[in-house]
Amino acid sequence: MGSTAPTDAARSETVQVRASRHTSAGGGLMVHEDAAKSRSTVTQEFIAKQTPGLNPMQLIAMLPGVNTTSVDPLGLNGGNLTLRGLNASQIGFTLEGFPINDIGNYAVYPQEIVDSENLRTINVEQGSADLDSPHISASGGAVNMYLLDPTEKFSGHLDGTYGSYNARRIFGRVDTGRIGNTHLKGYISFSAAHEDSWRGPGAQKKLHGETKWVNEWGQGNRISLAIVGNQSDSTLFPSMSLANWQKYGTTYTYDSKWNPKSPSANYYKLHQNPFTNIYASAPSTFTLTDHLTLTETPYFWYGNGNGGGAYNESLTSQQYGSQSLSGSIGQYNPSNTKSLLLYNPSNTQTYRPGAVTKLALHTGANRLMVGYWFEYSKQIQTAPYSLVDPATGAPLDEYGGGPNLVLSNGVTAQYRDTLTQTRIHTLFIDDSLSLLNNRLTIEGGLKYAMITRAGQNYLPNTSTGPYINGSWNEPLPAASIRYKLNDQFQLFASGTTNFRIPMNTSLYDAGTYTKGAGYSTKANPNQKPEISISEEAGIRYQGSLFNSTLTYFHYNFTNRLYTQTVVLPNGSYYSQSINGGGSHADGVDFEIGTRPILYHLRPYISAEYINARTDSNVAASGNGDYVFSKGKFAPQTPKQQVAFNLDYDDGHLFSGFALKYVGKQYSTFNNDTSIPSYVTMNVHAGYRFHNFGFMKNPVLQLNLQNITNNHYLGFVNGTAANGKATTGVFGSKISAGSTTYYVASPFFVGGTASVDF
């Protein structure tokens, strides 16, 4: 159950990537696997043939159980993912061993993580994260990303892409090679990308830098340092209701023109998403004795940015909790202005240091690992009101800087205003016994997680008061067994317990305050953690011609946590984190990939069938009633998925065709609203030229995404108890709930030239 970041030497990596054009299975979509649970891997060989710069969610779309959608072709605006029907906030993401998920709401922003050219592998653990994975939200699996190691000799890589929607991107990397007579080596890379919005006005822009340094000595001693910096500034794409999709289709967008005489909150410059991130991690391994190994992974996670919005605000009557006060901003006050369009971004600033420490004792057939994960994070979330330039319609400061709206009592007006400090102490122990000449491996372990949240809400008249504390202590056992029938066949089975503590937003009231109804986002702090128990059993075949895996899985959830929008009989509504009760699922995953067969072809097929059911009636309205959701199919979960990838590569000419089918997805718990199934197809082709002078491996390639230009709703963004008016379990009338969706990206063609030196 324990894991350690791969540490293949760079020379081995280079040989592996190049040789794998002729030997790897499925065109880089399958590797040799010995884990006693389901795990699928994408390698650099497959990644290098995709459109450069795609985010990690886009790159794993072909793997079994993965349902991923991007709202723009290059993935610069983020992405959405479910894995076996569980969304990204239930999946633990790591890069070089440190956690990527937001510490508050566990969201993943894949456009910020890594440049695809620097990725060595991405492995997807469909059922459970490893015991030593640093997560408090991985109740449904994990996605682990690893960077390439620096090369042994001085070298570099440069590529440039141009495509549809004025998309343009450049990437460069320089490897130092071994520095002098030392073992130290490293690389520095940089990329810049721009893409005009395909749906509506605006653009997506990104500057990204990465560096990795490695020093190795002796037998198994290694220190590494990886730093990632990212600065994005994108125009958001609006999600939409089914009614708006049916009425407007892809023309449902933000306004492209600003009218100073009639200011509109729907103007696109008021819906930006600026964000800056810095990630640093130093996964290092030390051989203390012939039998004892220490692995230390300190890390630091910094983020600062927001998602923008705007509202017409009254200066004569602003709510400060239950009080109604006047306000002023800059030169505007109640004596000269009754109301004003103000910019109101949802700012988040995160500081997140931590470390994972592991000791592994190898004594013959036994391996004992003990470890400790500590993290102390600080997250500040605000939403002040600031000025809009009356001439251009753009915010004076995208980050919501002053002048800000100040109330008559001297307090700065805020839509939300919280500070969350999270302390994590996690102990884990794992024991593995290898018998019968390594044919039989039995493993068992226990993780004990102790998490506390100290929250402070600076808004007045909240239901929980200004100070809110939460604590959760969870024992999480795991066990697995793997048996090798021979060199080709493996049988495996595992049982794991995973959890996800409530999001920090569940601690706080926030939003608009209405007398008699309170805040539009209501706290629900006394929730138990979401617990999942996952079992898997499977068989692998790994032969000279092909690899394949067939896995049966079952999971059972208790205290399933959801964020729900509740529509009241009077038409008002509020959102709240709720306990959705239990759910369970049974399913089968399958994948098969060949090594080169006729004419250098390597096909790959993955498929999933899942039967996921809700075990409880879900709360629907503010009067305490429920919808009849017990036994219904789980939302956001396609019953069937099939992926097919065909790779051709003769060493110079390469091409490929990829197809993905995703079944219907319900968007409500009582299954009265859904989005239909869809099919997407991608094509690529390229040619590797002979070396020319100092230029090595010059390549030209063409990538076409969604070649049929299929316009479809690709992701259920906001689930609800019911999408249509209905009668509840207790006989009350329940108004139609609010469900929203994201439109998937359209046809895209991009051309790329790359060269090594």
Task: Provide the gyration radius in Å.
Answer: 26 Å
Distance between the termini: 40 Å
- As a percent range, the share of strand residues is over 45%
Sheet having the most strands: 22 strands, antiparallel, barrel
Helix content: under 10%
Flag low-confidence runs.
Answer: 3-22
What is the mean predicted local confidence, pLDDT?
A: 93
Q: Tell me the total number of β-strands.
A: 47
**Class based on secondary structure composition and strand pairing:** mainly beta
Gross morphology is globular
Counted by DSSP, the helix tally is 4
Region (Disordered): 1-32
Domain TonB-dependent receptor-like beta-barrel: 242-707
Protein name: TonB-dependent receptor
InterPro entries: Beta-barrel_TonB, Beta-barrel_TonB_sf, Plug_dom, Plug_dom_sf, TonB-dep_rcpt-like
Describe this structure in words.
With 757 residues, the chain is mainly β. 4% of the residues lie in helices and 52% in strands. It is built from 4 helices and 47 strands. The strands form 10 sheets. It has a 22-stranded antiparallel β-barrel. A 5-stranded mixed sheet has the order 1-7-8-5-6. It has a 4-stranded mixed sheet with strand order 29-30-34-33, with no helix packed on it. A hairpin with a 5-residue loop joins strand 44 and strand 45. The protein is globular. It starts with 9 loop residues before the first helix and ends with a strand. Mean pLDDT is 93; it is low at 3-22.
